[in-house]
Design goal:
The chain is built from 10 helices and 10 strands. The chain has a 10-stranded mixed β-sheet, with helices on both faces.
């Protein structure tokens, strides 16, 4: 079971949705929930600034402190109402992703939201979710920016391609998968090039899942030709009524993902159910 779960806290309206998801998970696992307060970097003083600018920055800092205190209070009250042990952590500088990655390393799981450009009060930076995935060293559960998710992990779609990222994702998600009622393993046919070399037999993967106390998995193979990896995954999740997708993130270098396009970026842009990523 997960013993400590972290959730990203900020002033955005998506914060409440992911906090409820994190609280439900923490309650199910009898885990401590840690709120990681990470907002935009505070304003800095600059050489030659005027007295007026100095006073303006002081007012902004005071407002940020008030907002931070309000977020902390709401989070702790929500946890207390569900009898979930909770604490809040934060740092005074650095980017939001750096803060979440740093403080989240002492947790079993980090919960964040899909980036939402309409959530103007959220702690935004370029590729916040991606940077957190790449640097945290912990599995990251990403909650879509729309929809309600009262149940997560009953019906799970797991993406398997034999990679180290996919293997790690299976291990990272094990506490959730042991409680699942149905597990579908999705493999994708990318043509002759993808079939070269040795591959792990599905029977070995299935026997490992059963040995770990997970449901005996159902195997589904999809051809991605003309569809793409991201759409294939989301379509399979819809077809099998999955309430959670488990997959590895950035199996290729970030440069190759940027130049060629990749499943991680594609699915982050159009996700419809929560996804647990491992890198």
């Amino acid at each position: 079971m997960y013993r400590r779960i972290s959730v990203h806290l900020d002033h955005g309206f998506d914060c409440a949705r992911r906090t409820q998801v994190a609280l439900a998970l923490a309650r199910r696992h009898q885990a401590e929930l840690v709120g990681l307060y990470a907002t935009s970097a505070p304003p800095q003083y600059y050489y030659g600034e005027s007295v007026l600018l100095s006073r303006t920055l002081s007012v902004i800092r005071d407002l940020q402190t008030q907002n931070r205190d309000a977020v902390h209070k709401a989070f702790l009250e929500a946890a207390a109402a569900l009898d979930v042990p909770a604490a809040v952590r934060g740092v005074d500088n650095g980017s939001p992703s750096a803060c979440v990655a740093l403080l989240g390393r002492t947790s079993d799981l980090i919960v964040v939201s899909q980036e939402n450009p309409d959530d103007i009060e959220a702690a935004h930076e370029i590729e916040f979710v991606e940077q957190t995935l790449l640097t945290a060293g912990r599995p990251v559960l990403v909650v879509p920016s729309s929809g309600d998710f009262p149940v997560i992990g009953e019906r799970v779609l797991y993406c398997w391609d034999g990679s180290r990222e996919a293997a790690r994702a299976l291990a990272d998600a094990a506490p959730l998968l042991r409680a699942a009622s149905h597990l579908v393993v999705l493999t994708m046919d990318e043509g002759a090039a993808s079939r070269k070399g040795a591959a792990v037999p599905f029977a070995d993967l299935a026997s490992y899942c059963v040995a770990q106390g997970m449901p005996a998995p159902e195997h589904v193979c999809r051809d991605i030709k003309g569809v793409g990896v991201g759409s294939t995954i989301l379509n399979a999740a819809a077809d099998h009524s999955a309430d959670l997708i488990v997959m590895g993130a950035y199996g290729h270098s970030k440069l190759r993902e940027w130049a060629m396009g990749g499943a991680t970026a594609s699915i982050l842009a159009s996700m419809t159910v929560p996804i647990m990523f491992s890198h």
